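Support request from a user on the community tier.

User writes: "When I paste my structure tokens into the form, the page sometimes reloads and wipes my input. The last time it worked, I copied everything first. Here is what I submitted, just in case something in the input itself triggers the reload:"
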């Protein structure tokens, strides 16, 4: 059993192991900036040198982003799961692209080569397009309410609708996203050709080569070699069961060696549908009654909206993974589980995998629009678990779950609680902020990111 007020996770220098990766990114970026200023060549204009530094930092951040999506097994634990690594990948890429704007304004070299200038244009245009395209699905959470109304009105115009058809959905974005390394290579070569600081300080040049070469090496590994090392398992669709109007459970039966997973993890699932092969990360909701695994799919957009129509029993599937570190065993003796909508999936996996009674006191908050489609199963599990208390919140009936209501219902000192959350991103950000303000330890707040790509 977890001890009172402690978090049974591996720590390094007093910090949870899952914080090592983010801390390393911050330290590396900061140290690289300090190094640039310490070795600034005599006579080099401060603004011009700062502009070149920002270009170098941009290459560093994009190289880090390449490492984070390399799918190497050592990356996942130090970020707390591949979903968290993907979030940091996006943060690094967005920050790197933002740094390019002042870099273009400040960095100037009268002896810049024509090839270097061309490569700079290719890199900036390509990387900016990738970032904008990546954040488009999240525009609702990034804009204030008045701006959202303007955007919604513009979405109904014909030019925007034509652009949306041209951009396509997730699969087309994913194909274009694979060009990231080529745009990085263009920016990297531009720096080698046109950075004036490299001539005066060879150490800057070779550190830049090491950083850019590392990022491009990881890109080459992911595109050319990763598929030969990553575990993949052959499955077949055995059942497609509608659970609610916008929710289905897909049962997958193994055709060979089955996937070994822990409850709460997710897998990268490749499904051959009537529209061709589709790829998406799905949380594993537990073993399927037919044998194999079950995934729960909500119509969130792209091909998931049409999944019940295009997936039929007998169709082949390939499952990669498992991934994720969303594990209730990392919690304390007093736990809160919060499931919003399809965010209930990993919690179903936990309940379905229980053997014997829970050793922790758990308050499980299930929020849904209308009665939860899994209410019967959850109630049956609760009957055999005296330490499990289930709280039902029906948002369609006007009820809204609040962090204050959660803390009041548990009746436990916040610093002793571990909180596990799955659900809409905006909701989880609000809850995380409120729990931290109430005294829940940062290391004891865990969430699953399922809106990542």
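"...and here is what came back when it finally went through:"
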């Amino acid at each position: 059993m977890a001890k009172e007020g402690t978090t049974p996770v591996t720590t390094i220098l007093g910090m949870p192991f899952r914080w090592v990766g983010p801390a390393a990114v911050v330290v590396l970026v900061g140290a690289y900036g300090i190094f640039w200023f310490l070795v600034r060549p005599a006579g080099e204009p401060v603004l011009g040198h700062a502009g070149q530094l920002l270009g170098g930092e941009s290459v560093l951040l994009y190289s880090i982003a390449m490492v984070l999506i390399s799918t190497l097994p050592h990356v996942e634990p130090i970020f707390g799961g591949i979903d968290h690594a993907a979030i940091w990948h996006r943060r690094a890429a967005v920050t790197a692209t933002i740094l390019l704007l002042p870099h273009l304004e400040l960095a100037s070299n009268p002896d810049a080569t024509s090839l270097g200038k061309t490569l700079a244009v290719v890199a900036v245009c390509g990387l900016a397009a990738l970032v904008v395209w990546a954040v488009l699905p999240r525009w609702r959470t990034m804009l204030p309410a008045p701006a959202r109304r303007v955007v919604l009105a513009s979405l109904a115009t014909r030019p925007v609708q034509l652009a949306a058809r041209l951009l396509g959905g997730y699969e087309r974005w994913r194909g274009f996203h694979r060009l990231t390394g080529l745009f990085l290579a263009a920016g990297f070569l531009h720096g080698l050709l046109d950075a004036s600081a490299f001539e005066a300080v060879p150490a800057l040049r070779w550190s830049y080569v090491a950083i850019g070469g590392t990022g491009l090496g990881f890109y080459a590994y992911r595109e050319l070699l990763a598929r030969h090392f990553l575990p993949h398992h052959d499955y077949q669709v055995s059942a497609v069961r509608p659970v609610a109007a916008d929710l289905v459970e897909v049962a997958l039966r193994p055709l060979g060696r089955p996937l070994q997973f822990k409850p709460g993890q997710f897998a990268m699932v490749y499904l051959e549908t009537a529209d061709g092969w589709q790829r998406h990360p799905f949380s594993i909701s537990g073993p399927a009654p037919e044998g194999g695994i079950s995934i729960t799919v909500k119509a969130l957009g792209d091909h998931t909206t049409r999944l019940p129509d295009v997936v039929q029993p007998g169709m082949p599937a390939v499952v990669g993974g498992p991934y994720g570190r969303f594990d209730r065993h990392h919690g304390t003796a007093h736990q809160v589980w919060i499931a919003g909508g399809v965010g209930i999936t990993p919690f179903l996996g936990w309940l379905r995998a229980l053997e014997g009674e829970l050793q922790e006191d758990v308050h499980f908050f299930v929020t849904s629009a209308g009665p939860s489609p899994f209410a019967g199963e959850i109630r049956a599990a609760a009957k055999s678990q005296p330490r499990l208390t289930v709280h039902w919140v029906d948002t369609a009936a006007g009820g809204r779950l609040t962090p204050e209501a959660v803390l009041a219902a548990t009746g436990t000192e916040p610093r002793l609680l571990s909180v596990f959350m799955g659900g809409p991103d905006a909701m989880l950000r609000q809850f995380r902020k409120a729990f931290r303000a109430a005294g829940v330890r940062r290391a004891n707040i865990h969430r699953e990111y399922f809106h990542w790509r």
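Agent notes: The reload is a front-end session timeout and is unrelated to the input. The two ends are 35 Å apart (CA to CA). Residues 1-9, 300-304 have pLDDT under 50 and may be disordered. Escalated to web team.
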